Amino acid sequence: MAILSKSNVPQFSVDVYQNEYLPEGGREVNAIVTVTATGGGTIGSAVTAPHLFSPGEGPSAAVVLMVDCSGSMDYPPTKMRNARDATAAAIDTLRDGVHFAVVGGTHVAKEVYPGGGGLAVAGDATREEARQALRKLSAGGGTAIGTWLGLADRLLASADVAIRHGILLTDGRNEHESPEDLRAALDACAGRFTCDARGVGTDWEVKEVTGIASALLGTADIVADPAHLAADFTRMMETAMGKEVADVSLRLWTPVGTTVKFVKQVAPTVEELTGRRSESGPRAGDYPLGSWGDESRDYHVCVEVPPAGIGREMLAARVSLVIPQPGGEVRNLGAQGLVRAVWTDDMAASTSINPQVAHYTGQAELAEVIREGLDLRKEGKMDGATAKLGRAVQLASASGNADTAKLLAKVVDVVDAATGTVRLKAKVEEADEMTLETRSTKTVRVKK
User: 130-136 contacts: CB < 8 A, separation 24 or more?
Assistant: First the structure.
C-alpha cells in the first residue's frame, strides 16, 4: 500500500485483497481493490477540513440544480411546492464562495437563477435572491431531460473550478425527446460534471433516472413522498460540499498476454466500469471514479493471465490512481496496489476463494437477480420472477444486506430466507417496487 502525502488534497490509499494462488494452467485472477481518501472533505457536513482550507472556504466548486417544472409537477400542487422548498434548502447548504445556478426543466431548459448564461457565487445576498427566484417556479410543459443537462453543462463550464456537480429532480418520463437524444446528451456531459438524480413520486422511469446517475458517476434514488424532498436535497448538497478532488481515475496496467475481463465498482453500489476505459499508454487504461471526499469504495478487478506451470509467479496487474490534466498529462496520486498470480499444486490454496471476492461476487449477483426478477414480474412471468427474487432473498440474507432484505420483503413473502423460498405478493405498492429497483445496486461492505 502506498499513501499520497500532499497538503492540498486528501491522502489516497489502495489496498488489494485476493487469493493469488492458481492451479497449474489456471488463468483467471480476481482481486478486490479498496480505494480510500482521508484527510479531505467530511461527507455529511458542509464544513471542510480545517487544515486544508481557511474558515468558510473549500475547494473551488460549482453546482447546478435542475428542477422538473413539467405539467405533472402540479399533480398534486404540493409537489411543486415541495420541490421549491427542497431547492431552497439545498441552496442554504451551499458553502460560501461556491458557484451555483438553478435550471427549470420542461421540454426546454430555462435559467431560473441567476440568468445571463452564468453562475452566482454563494453568499447571504445571492442565496436570498435565489430563494426569491424559486417562488416564481410554476408547472407547465413537457419533459426533455437532455436539454436540462445541456444547459447545466454550459453553465458549469463557465466557471474555472475544480469540482462541477449537478442535482437533477424529475417526476415523470422523458417523453419529449428520444432516448437517443438523452443518450447523446449524457455522452456529451460524461467526464465534464457529476450528477445526482432523484425521482419524486411514482410516475417516472427507474431505468432513466438510474441511467443518468450512472453515466455521470452520481447517485440515484426515489423520493416517493414529496414531503421528504427537502431532507434528501440537503443531504445531497452536504455530500457535494464534502467533495475535494474531481476526476480521479483508476489506472490499470497489465503485462503482455494479460486480458482485462472486467472492472466494476462493488461498494457502496455496483457500477460497471469496463466499457468506460480510456487507453493511457502501452498496456494501461484509465477507469473514471468521479469526485472524492472522505470516503472509501471497493472495486472488483478480474484479469486473465497466460497459463504457467507450478512454481511460477507474475505480476498480473498494477493499480494506481491518477487525475488527468490538460494536454494529456496526468497527476499521479501516489497510491498503488499490486495484483499477483502464483501457480501452485496445493489444492487447498488454489481453490480457496478470497472472502472479499466471494462477498462482492454475491453482491453483484444480488443486484442482477433483483433487476431480472422485477422485469419478469412486469412481464407476467411469475415463475421466473419468483425464482430470481427468491435467489435475491437468499443472497441478501447470506451477506447481511439487511436494507435490501427489507425492501424485498415488501415484494415477496419470505418462507425461508436461507433457501430462497418465497411467494410473490398478490398486491405490491408501486413505490415499494420502484424503491427496490432503484436501490438494487446498493451493497454492504464485507465483514472484516
Answer: 130/88, 130/91, 130/100, 130/102, 131/88, 131/91, 133/102, 134/84, 134/87, 134/88, 134/102, 135/84, 136/112
Looking at residue 428, its amino acid is V
What are the start-end ranges of the E strands in 268-382?
A: 271-272, 278-281, 284-292, 295-304, 313-324, 330-343
Residue 41 has pLDDT above 90, yes or no: no
CB under 8 Å to 435, separation ≥6 — which residues? 222, 224, 407, 410
Apex CA 286: angle with CA 342 and CA 155, to 5°? Answer: 155
Q: Has residue 99 got a pLDDT over 50?
A: yes
Q: Distance of alpha carbon 234 from its chain centroid, rounded?
A: 18
**Strands of the 330-343 sheet, one edge to the other:** 21-22, 330-343, 313-324, 245-253, 284-292, 278-281
pTM (2 decimals)?
0.92
Pairing of strands 99-105, 120-121: antiparallel
**CA 17 vs CA 209, 261, 340, 395: distances in Å:** 33, 18, 10, 21
Report the helix count and the strand count for the chain, using DSSP H and E: 11, 20
CA angle in degrees (0–180, nearest 5) for 156-104-212: 65
Q: What are phi and psi of 314, to 5 degrees?
A: -155, 160
Judged by DSSP in three states, 24 sits in coil
Residue 50: its pLDDT value, please? 29
The C-alpha cell at 181 is: 437524444
CA dihedral 177, 182, 188, 189 (to 10 degrees): 110
Residue with cell 496496467: 253
Please answer whether residues 201 and 174 qualify as being in contact, where contact means their C-beta atoms are separated by less than 8 angstroms. no
297 compared with 45, residue with greater pLDDT: 297
